[in-house]
Amino acid sequence: MKKLKLDIIGLSYSQTQSGAYALVLGEVNGRRRLPIIIGGFEAQAIAIEIEKMTPSRPLTHDLFKSFAEAYHIHIQEVIIYNLVDGIFYSKLICNDGKKNMEIDARTSDAIALAVRFQCPIYTYEFILGSAGIVIEGNDFVFLDNIEPVDETKPKASVNYTSFSIEELQTKLHEALKEEAYEKAAKIRDEISKRKTS
Questions:
Q1: Domains of the chain listed by start with CATH number
Q2: Other C-beta atoms within 10 Å of 82: how many?
Q3: Between the CA of residue 4 and those of 53, 64, 77, 93, 146, what are the distances in Å?
Q4: E strand or H helix that includes residue 7
Q5: What is the per-residue pLDDT across 85-110, written as a single tens digit (0 to 9) for each?
Q6: Rounded to an integer, what distance in angstroms lies between the CA atom of residue 149 and that of residue 151?
Q7: How far is the C-alpha of 153 from the C-alpha of 151, rounded, in Å?
Q8: Rounded distance, CA 172 to CA 158, Å?
Q9: Which residues pair with 13 in a beta bridge?
Q10: Degrees to nearest 5, angle at CA 177 with 174 and 180
């Protein structure tokens, strides 16, 4: 299967779930975005490395990097390789100079390590096709099966059933303008449900 390279596009506070963050990955040389809801600790670990900040004491991901480097283990790439029941599955592709190893990891942890090891992040077409958001011009068009993945449990769901279609479309436009991708996906799903029933 052909791998598709992703970049980190954004990281923002989730407007639909307290204490969670939206991590948005973007297809390199493409228009699709992959939104993932992650926990605050993982968001902090990613943001600190992206901003090149140095905490007074090493974070867990920094400790992992130091430990790996002490034993000459390097992460070559991160692959988001599956999506089952709303959960992304990722793995680290590592090398110790003699052999390659694959290590299972939560996507948020894998990305926190990818930014530390400055390694590429990949996924496959079927994942972007089922969980991606397509950007057309300045607007976002949602693919049929999008359900932003939430790595923080339990899920806090917002009920959009009491809103009219017009109110939902206004809220969808506002969410997209604010780049609140996970909120927009939920609103889009409610609009889709009503159109098919």
A1: 3-130 (3.10.690.10)
A2: 14
A3: 29, 26, 12, 15, 18
A4: strand 3-13
A5: 888 999 999 999 999 999 999 999 99
A6: 6
A7: 6
A8: 14
A9: 21
A10: 80
